[in-house]
Specification:
45% helix, binds ligand G3I, 392 residues, 8-stranded parallel β-barrel, single chain
Length: 392
């Protein structure tokens, strides 16, 4: 291809990209402008001032709450400023990768009969050194399974694998884990089952009893830890989220009716303002229904994606902050909620940058601190929600 042709086609390509970005930016702002929630979402006059110069963990503790965040060894070990910000603001920590079967640069399970605790032990030592309550995430999940899982596991050996995993991993940290996400994201009504269970290898190999088995084995391996069922998509006034809330509640009732040891529901709270309608009354009712089962609730992975918000940083930050405060002020009225964790503390390390980037390529701004560890309005919003929450 001639040089001119190459240049032309390259320019066309770039022009095409540019116009695509422009189109998508217009599309975002048009959909946002047409969004009936525009006024409800963005109020330039909204007050986000904080009344006390305390950290998030101190404000939470004043109400008997716990605030924490997620991160990884690879982020913390290479970023002293981030580690300091976490220690300053958090009294709880959850590893984003290191207690999974495999994720990122952590491979807890190199083989069917193999374990590598290097990264997980680093996390446990980090938490102990800084007196952070530690969450275990997660024992049983259909994602982040090592490559050998698919090739090796079957109906005959899955039970033995699960037992050895729990009796080795959970037992190793027994007494050090505030709460384990024993089973993660096992409900998916779209899979069409009457019980709402997600069709996963665990369900295929062990049947519906895999959930009860995981909870009973974890309880036996660490009698001190809180046993949590963790899931997402429980937050909004949409048919999908309503179906999921109903199915999760039924699962919790079913587990309790069969004597499964379970102490809490983990609500991930990955929020999407501008995409879904928020109905505080429906959310409040769901939390009350869960609490009426005698269960505690942990907000386990909160962040506010800005994919459906305009590019303007001031507008985005206001809407993100309002979303944090509106959601937390709703759920913290339920005193069964014992802890709130954001899925990261700084925009420098959000999974959303990689997994759900904005179509206009602008840097995402989902978390309480910006990439320079400076407090954003989102930080104020969380602080205000803790400050106004009823005491536990
Ligand atoms: O950094 C490595 C890179 O060096 C390597 O080349 C690449 C290919 O394997 O992997 C990169 O690491 C990936 C990492 O995200 C980068 O951010 C891991 O593979 C990938 O597993 C990891 O994804 C994590 C995901 O769970 C799956 O474990 C995300 O960090 C983590 O934020 C996300 O968290 C989940 C919760 O556990 C459950 N709830 C939803 C939440 C968000 O998806």
């Amino acid at each position: 291809m001639s040089k001119i042709l190459k240049l032309t086609s390259r320019r066309n390509f770039l022009f095409g990209l540019g116009s695509l970005a422009a189109i998508s930016a217009v599309a975002i702002s048009r959909s946002f402008n047409n969004n009936q929630d525009r006024e409800a979402l963005d109020n330039p006059e909204r007050d986000f001032t904080v009344s006390q110069e305390l950290s998030l963990k101190q404000l939470a503790a004043q109400k008997g709450l716990i605030y924490g965040t997620a991160s990884t060894k690879s982020y913390l070990a290479s970023d002293p400023a981030y580690m300091a910000a976490i220690v300053e603001n958090c009294s709880m920590f959850v590893p984003e990768w290191e207690f999974k079967w495999t994720a990122g640069d952590a491979l807890l399970r190199p083989g069917f009969n193999q374990f590598d605790f290097t990264a997980a032990d680093w996390i446990a030592n980090f938490a102990a050194t800084h007196k952070l309550l530690l969450r275990g995430h997660t024992v049983v999940w259909h994602e982040s399974l090592p490559k050998w899982f698919k090739e090796t596991v079957n109906r005959e050996n899955a039970s033995q694998l699960l037992q050895s995993h729990i009796q080795t991993v959970v037992k190793r940290y027994a007494g050090k884990i505030h709460s384990w996400d024993v089973v993660n994201e096992a409900i998916e009504p779209k899979d069409g089952r009457d019980d709402g269970l997600r069709i996963t290898p665990w369900l295929e190999y062990l049947g519906t009893s895999y959930i009860d088995l995981a909870f009973r084995l974890t309880a036996a391996a660490d009698p001190q830890t809180l046993l949590v069922y963790n899931d997402y998509g429980l937050d909004y006034d949409t048919p999908e989220d309503e179906a999921k809330r109903v199915a999760v509640l039924k699962l919790l009732e079913r587990l309790q009716s069969q004597g499964t040891p379970i102490h809490a529901l983990g609500v991930q709270a990955h929020l999407y303002p501008g995409k879904h309608k928020f109905n505080p009354d429906k959310l409040r009712q769901f939390f009350a229904d869960v609490a009426s089962l005698g269960l505690k609730i942990i907000i386990t992975e909160m962040d506010v994606a800005d994919n459906y918000l305009p590019r303007d940083v001031a507008v985005r930050d206001r809407i993100i902050a309002a979303t944090y405060e509106d959601y937390l002020s709703t759920v913290l009225d339920e005193t069964a909620v014992i802890a709130v964790l954001t899925w990261g503390l700084s925009d420098r390390y959000s999974w959303l940058s990689q997994f759900q980037p904005r179509s206009d390529k602008a840097a995402v701004r989902p978390l309480p601190l910006d990439i320079y560890m400076r407090r954003k309005l989102a930080w104020n919003a969380i602080a205000r929600a803790f400050d106004h929450a009823p005491k536990r």
